[in-house]
Records
---
Amino acid sequence: MQITSKFTTAVHILTCIDVFGEQMRVTSEFLSGSTGVNAVIIRNVLAQLRSAGIVNTRQGSGGAHLAKPLNEITLYDVYLAVECVDNDEGLFHFHENPNARCPVGRNIHKVMDNRLSAVQAAMENELKSVSLSEIVADTKRIISEE
Amino acid sequence: MQITSKFTTAVHILTCIDVFGEQMRVTSEFLSGSTGVNAVIIRNVLAQLRSAGIVNTRQGSGGAHLAKPLNEITLYDVYLAVECVDNDEGLFHFHENPNARCPVGRNIHKVMDNRLSAVQAAMENELKSVSLSEIVADTKRIISEE
DNA sequence: CTACTTGTCAATATGATTATTACAAGTTTG
DNA sequence: CAAACTTGTAATAATCATATTGACAAGTAG
């Protein structure tokens, strides 16, 4: 099981918009070339980032732009935007038909739910602690040292 | 994206072994009935728990038994045993073909890896903090109050 | 108008997860 | 030993999520 690559793709996209955005139009075709991901997927990810208020895009004119400063975008915002984990279902997939006639079967969900939520929250809190400005700053530093 | 239900199934199994183990043989058929999960899946999960030194099973005689006390088994041990997350790949699936000729493409992995590992570690640390004895104690308490 | 780009649909592959059938091999009971 | 039961495991199929691809309507800019 792995969290969809749309997440790392989205971070890659946002980094490109900041790194290249001033010199050129950052189109879905360009992003497809940089990420190695199909342009339709790129457009879908951009649409999700746009719905989340993270980027602006427009038909025709082309080129994605940041809708807010990088330091106001965390990995968690990106994670939410691309729907890595379904809000209803949660991170852990429960076996769906525990037997209600078994004392354990009818209570296991109740007993585990809070704890699994805490595990998911621990992961999400860590995502909240990283802002895109850190990611991009590191990227620019590495590029300048190459 | 969700973590395989083999994880919650395994916790369910271990709870059943402790709750019912003294009164009866806890066979894969019985566990299949309690969990609503196919008996072959149950046997596969039991095989993984056995490989991890968490339970004992034997051909023929039937009935799974705990190989160590519940308070020495954490959710993390179970998570490792049933291989929720591939050790090589990690929790996050990276897009696989970033363009090495793009400055961002050839560095994005390097920049993100540490941070994604930290996120995964935060989740796994939370799993380590919960022992099966807590889960089973809660279950028994709820059953006794029904 | 023309060239380009985004938004989106539909069809297809690909891969992971779970279910199911089948049977060899080990254990227990009589 | 024979019968009944159980685990271990392989192979196949069904289901679902993920990612790719081609197509085209609609918006924008020169």
---
Amino acid sequence: MQSQLKRGTLELCVLSILCRGDRYGYELVNIISSCMHITEGTIYPLMKRLKDAGSIDSYIVESQEGPPRKYYRITDDGRVIQKEQETEWRSFSVAINKLLDGEEKQ
Amino acid sequence: MQSQLKRGTLELCVLSILCRGDRYGYELVNIISSCMHITEGTIYPLMKRLKDAGSIDSYIVESQEGPPRKYYRITDDGRVIQKEQETEWRSFSVAINKLLDGEEKQ
DNA sequence: CATAGTACCTTGCAAAACAATGTACTATGT
DNA sequence: ACATAGTACATTGTTTTGCAAGGTACTATG
């Protein structure tokens, strides 16, 4: 079930990481893996969606340690989206914690 | 997009509310609506899934103010699930906040 | 020359939120 | 008598997205 929790937050995670600097796909998998289970089958389709939406763009860099890397860079539009989603996440998690702690009106 | 954030957490919300007392479906929609957008099309299928899984059971109570109400009661198994999911949620939200704040290893 | 690690990508499946739609009861107003 | 609104249940079909499984290809190591 763990997997369902990630819905909607992975995009925010990726955008937030890219806000702090360019990364390539495989690197993103490793970074996020330190916090939660994730595989390439999740990241690459997500990067494609983000690129199609104009939130990120990309460029290729050759590597001596293996195949060429596709680096992703966040766009100005992407930064706006990231801010929106971060705000959404903060208020959402507050709302959930409220319901967990039983602060709804009777 | 808001909708995607709810994945996996609605179940926890419902179980947490039922931990504090029995509720009927329409009532749950109203309680949760005070925190986030939700409709009956989400709750009723969820209640069916929870019942099939043995996390809740239900009983009918006649009402003078409208049609009969189907009350849901959490089972012992459901309480175990609720605790597990609450723990999962807490550690998940910590992990997300870490990624947002850029505490991943470089 | 086999294996492991790096790095890319696609296909197909499954879970779950939700709009839309439908039924049926009670109460209120006209 | 009849329309409307509120309460309360339920189902169908669509959409999104996470992810296992599979594939390609490069470099380095034993």
